[in-house]
Design goal:
Strand order of the largest sheet: 1-3-2-6-7
Strand content: 15-25%
Oligomer: single chain
Helix content: 40-55%
CATH class of one domain: Alpha Beta
Order of helices and strands: HEHEHHEEEHEEHH
Shape: globular
Largest sheet: 5 strands, mixed
Amino acid sequence: MKKIMLFFAFVSAIITSNAQKAEINWMSLEDAVAAQAKEPRKIMMDMYTAWCGPCKLLDRNTFQNTDVANYVNANYYAVKFNAEGNEVVSFKDKTFTNPSYDPAKAKRRNSGHQLAAYFRVQAYPTIVFLDEKGDLITPIKGYHAPNQLEIFLKLFATDKYKEVTTQEQFQQYQKDFKPEFKG
């Protein structure tokens, strides 16, 4: 009887765990820009590295959150980009590479990619937000839990950021903001 109860508890835990996880539809930057031409949306770009602990937490705790994933998928084109990788990227009529990339350091600290520098990424993780034309809105650095990221996702998706242009206005926006995401 104990084995049966343990089995059902285990299955229930798996079902609950899977129900709370969702998938963001990640794509390349080139694919996101091409998608923008057909259906304009903003781009949310996760700039991560292979060795970054907070990047892994962001993936596990925030990007797999159902509320976050559903909101991102409905309002953004999502791009995941290794900011120390060796991918060749064409963006805004420029080619970005990582000329100092060392394949022997693929799983640890490596040189920064030119695209990361272009978007002013100075720490990992950084989430870069681009408007419907692929122009930089702003980079947001650091780990953010789902309810912490929600304020930025909604600020940019709704164009409210165009009205919130000072630190005081942002502080008021934060004060008035009613979070809805769980987790």
